[in-house]
Design goal:
Elements: H1 3-7, E1 23-24, E2 29-30, H2 37-54, H3 90-104, H4 112-123, H5 131-134, H6 152-162, H7 166-169, H8 173-179, H9 183-189, H10 201-204, H11 206-209, E3 223-234, E4 237-241, E5 250-254, E6 258-262, E7 268-269, E8 274-275, E9 292-297, H12 301-304, E10 306-314, E11 320-329, E12 337-349, E13 359-362, E14 368-371, E15 397-401, E16 431-434, E17 439-444, E18 458-462, E19 468-473, E20 485-486, E21 489-490, H13 493-496, E22 508-511, E23 518-523, E24 536-540, E25 546-552, E26 557-565, H14 568-571, E27 583-589, E28 595-600, E29 610-616, E30 640-641, H15 650-660, E31 731-732, H16 736-747, E32 751-752, H17 763-776
Parallel strand pairs: 2-32, 3-26
Antiparallel strand pairs: 1-31, 3-29, 4-5, 5-6, 6-8, 7-30, 9-10, 10-11, 11-12, 13-14, 14-15, 15-16, 17-18, 18-19, 19-22, 20-21, 23-24, 24-25, 25-26, 27-28, 28-29
Length: 777
């Protein structure tokens, strides 16, 4: 081969010619129909119109498997440009390298230096964090390109010097025939509408690559996260917990007193784990705070089968109480509780219908922590200082007990020896911390996966009275201020000015201009969304606002950022949704540490409008295989009910908009809920005051006064404002010695159709086709 041949793009070795039949060795196989050059030109016209009118193909970091990019766990030897962030792990990098050398075997040695770089660039685009955009793979239902999108100048240079390599990069004979000699057609095929994303310009775009891989923030600093719907049709789902028994089952409790078992495949068992709705006290009234409120599994549940529940009930004398009981799982069915084993551990009389607390959990010390409300009504009006500041009352407290054994005085539990007030004759020995109003949802921090920093901290959301909501970290013997203080400010001036108050301030408090009823959350310590590690994610029941706290390790201060759900550009992944029900009831963590929340669109204990959502960070995921779980199988005797989503995913909504009417702007749904400045409402399992309880239709009932039609924020006397709800297909003939490795690599991945774009033929034909297309749309 002489230099003139090289400059003319004839680089194939005369001694080694590619075989007629090629096999696909790319990570994603293309087996779509053959497409002619004229058809390709037409499809390009379609794509451009879709992009221009519907803005469906939005450039955002996404891999060819339709998931976010990741940080490879090991060094990439071949496509090293993407070893810090991209779409290839070491196995895929090795597969691409093998394919590259197969191609180079057919290229004249003199052309290696001239074309090797171009070919390496092209085959490595499967590793680009923008691979999906380069290959038109952002929509899993659309056909894909054989080759990545190349910028015009780069494409022209490649075609000028290395056009013979086209036959090695794709097995599509029509592309080979029409494009090897026609640079314009070839580069039109590889053109993509948004020039910011073509290779290699995408690497130089500072706007696209600024903070690439970090959690996406909008212009106001709101974190862009996405959701997956995992359950629906629930009646005020108040909690979701796991048994920590390696089965990865989730136990979801409804406020009416029924616990359901959800299996790792997303299905639900038809028979409930526990049904005590005949014992639980609750009503259909909007925002009734009574009901089934708490559940926790014993740390040694795998061995002893014990779990604990917290619920409202009415005794024979019609006195309302909360009861904390111990039960055991059935010997004959691990998915059924034995209701006959119930053993009452503690009962506390409730002077009012609201502020019932409801959280129970086990700390790392193995002891049970119980969180009670202050007794209800408004302003903790009980006694001289209120229940919360009275250490001789169990109300308005964090209690700690040892459930393994009985005390010497006949109690069905023991008092831990290091309880802070165990030796104080003026205090009850169960008290661990006090001065709380109505803590609604607390959690234990698992700690950083590597350093274990933060492990064992207990976070709680404490619902405020009239002005502030707060988040606290519980410490032994701590006084959290209520009713002397609400948030950082004084509520009872006389108590607040008492020098002996010595209260512990919250780590964060927000005013009622932001939200009116906090729902405590979790510190994210899961595997699938590494960017979220260390974020305390929580919400507000009344307006559906989601928020996150990040600790500054230098100052130990916590910074709040809002979380926005529903950006089309950020969440345009298969399976992700862009909206959720308004009333955020609770948060949950599965056995792997992934984070969820429960919400309803109608906060009545009897209304089946509750759903469960899983958080997803669309900017970065863990490397493939890192988070794979192997649940211990559990024999099921009950029928499995498959999960059927009710909320449309972002791709489904975009497709629907395109087919119904041409959208004017990119879809953006359920982002940050607007701030409410109008009067507030009360919550289902709410925890503020409603001094008035009005049923949806029923008349007054006993000591309960009527409450407003809308739920009231826990402790408020005003009404709440309604808030809206919120690679592919490049082919080559590998030598037999490498075939087995490459075949294994490709057999694990889904098959996709072939190239869908095409070049222009003539200006006149293009105009006719586009005009025809517009008329059909």
């Amino acid at each position: 081969m002489n230099n003139s041949n090289l400059q003319g793009g004839h680089i194939l070795s005369a001694l080694k010619k590619p075989p007629e039949k090629k096999t696909t060795v790319s990570s994603l196989k293309s087996n779509g129909p053959w497409i002619s050059c004229s058809s390709l030109n037409f499809l390009i016209g379609v794509s451009f119109i879709v992009l221009g009118q519907g803005k469906l193909l939005l450039g955002h970091p996404q891999c060819l498997d339709y998931g976010p990019p990741f940080q490879p766990p090991f060094h990439l030897e071949f496509c090293s440009a993407y070893e810090t962030f991209g779409c290839c792990d070491q196995d895929k990098d090795n597969t691409i390298a093998a394919r590259y050398w197969e191609i180079m075997d057919y290229i004249d040695p003199q052309a290696h230096k001239l074309c090797g770089g171009y070919i390496k660039d092209i085959v490595c685009q499967e590793c680009s964090p923008y691979a999906a955009h380069l290959y038109d793979a952002e929509n899993s239902q659309m056909p894909l390109r054989n080759l990545p999108g190349l910028c015009s100048d780069y494409c022209s240079e490649f075609h000028l010097y290395c056009r013979s390599a086209i036959t090695l990069l794709t097995d599509d004979k029509h592309i080979q025939e029409c494009c090897e000699r026609n640079k314009t057609r070839f580069c039109n095929l590889l053109n993509i509408q948004d020039q910011d994303y073509c290779f290699p310009d995408v690497l130089k775009n500072t706007d696209l690559n600024h903070k690439l891989g970090s959690v996406v923030e909008d212009k106001k600093g709101c974190l862009q996260l996405c959701l997956i719907e995992v359950a629906n049709g629930l009646r005020n789902p108040v909690l979701m917990v796991h048994a920590n028994d390696n089965t990865h089952r989730m136990f979801v409790a409804e406020q009416v007193g029924i616990i359901w078992v959800y299996l790792p495949d997303g299905s639900r068992l038809e028979e409930p784990f526990l049904d005590i709705k005949n014992l639980v006290l609750t009503t259909p009234w909007l925002g009734d705070e009574r009901g089934f409120l708490g559940m926790a599994f014993h740390p040694k549940y795998k061995d002893n089968g014990k779990f604990y529940i917290y619920y409202s009930y009415q005794d024979k004398k019609k006195v309302e109480k909360i009861r904390i009981s111990e039960l055991r799982v059935s010997i004959s069915d691990l998915n059924k509780a034995d209701a006959s084993t119930e053993r009452s551990l503690l009962e506390i009389e409730e002077p009012a219908a609201n502020h019932n607390g409801g959280q129970i959990l086990f700390g790392l010390d193995g002891y049970m922590y119980l969180f009670t409300g202050d007794g209800g009504k408004a302003g903790d009006p009980f006694g001289k200082f209120g229940n919360a500041q009275n250490k001789s009352s169990l109300l308005g407290k964090v209690l700690r007990i040892n459930v393994d054994g009985r005390s010497s005085v006949g109690k069905p539990y023991r008092i831990p020896l290091d309880n802070p007030f165990a030796s104080d004759p003026k205090a009850l020995p169960e008290v661990y911390a006090y001065g709380v109003r109505n803590m609604w949802r607390c959690s234990v921090d698992r700690g950083d996966p590597l350093t274990h920093k933060g492990r064992g901290r207990i976070f709680c959301g404490d619902v405020g009275q009239n002005k502030f909501e707060e988040v606290d970290i519980i410490v032994k013997g701590g006084n959290y201020g209520w009713r002397a203080k609400e948030g950082f400010e004084c509520y009872d001036i006389k108590l607040c000015q008492n020098s002996s108050l010595d209260d512990i301030p919250p780590i964060f408090a927000y005013s009622h201009s932001v939200g009116k009823s906090v729902t405590g959350g979790y510190v994210y310590r899961g595997c699938q969304s590494p960017n979220l590690n260390g974020l305390y994610i929580f919400g507000d029941f009344m307006n559906g606002r989601l928020m996150a706290l990040q600790e500054d390790e230098r100052t130990n201060k916590w910074k709040k950022q809002d979380i926005c759900i529903g950006s089309t550009k950020a969440c345009a992944f298969p399976g992700l949704i862009s909206s959720y029900s308004k009333y955020i009831i609770s948060f949950a963590e599965d056995e792997a540490g992934e984070l969820y929340f429960m919400a309803t669109s109608y906060p009545s204990a009897f209304a089946p409008h509750g759903s469960i959502y899983k958080f997803v960070d669309p900017a970065r995921r863990a490397p493939p295989g890192k988070c794979k779980q192997k649940p211990v199988p559990v024999k099921t005797k009950s029928k499995r009910i498959p999960f059927t989503p009710r909320t449309k995913t972002v791709p489904e909504l975009l497709k629907e908009r395109l087919t119904t009417q041409p959208p004017k702007t990119a879809f953006n749904a359920t982002e940050l809920p607007p701030t409410s400045s109008t009067p507030k409402s009360k919550k289902p399992v709410s925890h503020k005051d409603p001094t008035q309880h009005k049923p949806a239709k029923p008349p007054r009932s006993g000591k309960k006064q009527q409450m407003a039609q809308l739920p009231k924020a826990r402790g408020s006397t005003t009404k709440a404002q309604k808030v809206p709800h919120v690679s592919k297909a490049v082919t080559i003939s590998p030598p037999k010695k490498k075939g087995s490795q490459l075949t294994r690599a490709k057999s694990k991945l889904p098959q996709v159709p072939k190239l869908r774009s095409a070049t222009k033929e003539t200006a006149q034909k293009k105009k006719r086709k586009q005009a025809s297309l517009r008329s059909t749309i």
